[in-house]
Amino acid sequence: MSKKAITLALGIMALSAVQVTAQAANVEAGKDAFETCRGCHTSPGTSNVYPTYYVPKVGGQTEAYTVAALTAYKESKRAHRTMMANTIDLSEQKIADIAAYLATASYGSGKAIANGGDIAKGKTLAASCLGCHNDDAKSSNPRLAGQHANYMEKAMQEYQSGARKNAIMSSMVSGLSQDDIKDIAAYFTSLKGGLTTVK
Ligand code: HEC
Ligand code: HEC
Q1: Of the residues 35, 36, 40, which should be mutated to test ligand 1's pocket, given the most ligand atoms within 8 Å of the CB?
Q2: Which percentage of the chain shows pLDDT scores above 90?
């Protein structure tokens, strides 16, 4: 085989490997695996208690971010007792299936619960965030548009305190006051986005 032909053959092999991985995420299997999750993630007003905040919307979330989030709970890198318990037995395959299912779950916007913050001020403050949080379904960053406000407040506070670890996000929110956080959350909640409450 000439060098060119070998390169081509390797290229085709690499391409088919990618396709196999992409096909491997199975939306139907993900839907089945999500059954145990519905109790908390399917009705808009479900709250976490102590601290109290609404269970985040996960429908319509970007696939790569859902994989990252579930893997972080599974590996105890993101501390939340219930979510750690719910992911500990999930295989990589199941996580990929669930992420593919959730990415396709578009059942209407669901209700995003506001926090009374100043949306206009939040919009100004959020200018530096939109490069990443631009609601692009193919991005690996989480979608925020239409997420419940007090969940986002809690996430930002955890990046500030270091309870939730992500170098980029900690630096993005380190200078924000608690009022800023409230206003930014109010702004993202007010946007009509791709996030949905799965039915
Ligand atoms: C008892 C209620 C409950 C159950 C059951 C549950 N979750 Fe959660 N889930 C939560 C709460 C509360 C959070 C927010 C935790 C935090 O603050 O990190 C969360 C967070 C998440 C997140 C991260 C969302 C984000 O924006 O970062 C994903 C994804 C998720 N859950 C998927 C699932 C899947 C998949 C299952 C089933 C295998 C499941 N959940 C079962 C309550 C629940
Ligand atoms: C360079 C890209 C980038 C920028 C800029 C950025 N973020 Fe993020 N953001 C991320 C990534 C990546 C994550 C997921 C991190 C993780 O896994 O915990 C995230 C997570 C979040 C979350 C938690 C989402 C969830 O579902 O749990 C919130 C809230 C958030 N960002 C708000 C902001 C705000 C507000 C700003 C601007 C002040 C901002 N981000 C700027 C990349 C970015």
Answers
A1: 40
A2: 66
How many beta carbons lie within 10 A of that of residue 3, not counting itself? 7
pLDDT at position 6: 52
Rounded to the nearest whole angstrom, what is the distance from the C-alpha of residue 27 to the centroid of ligand 2? 26
Q: Is the pLDDT of residue 19 over 90?
A: no
- pLDDT confidence tier of residue 112, bands split at 50, 70 and 90: confident
pLDDT at 72 over 60: yes
Structure tokens at 55: 């269970």
| Residue with CA nearest ligand 1 atom 27 | 69
Contact 112, 119 (CB under 8 A): no
Please say whether the dihedral angle defined by the alpha carbons of residues 156, 55, 79 and 91, taken in this order, is positive or negative: negative
Q: Which atom of ligand 2 is nearest the CA belonging to 181?
A: 35
Mutate to test the pocket of ligand 1, among 31, 41, 47 (most ligand atoms within 8 A of CB): 41
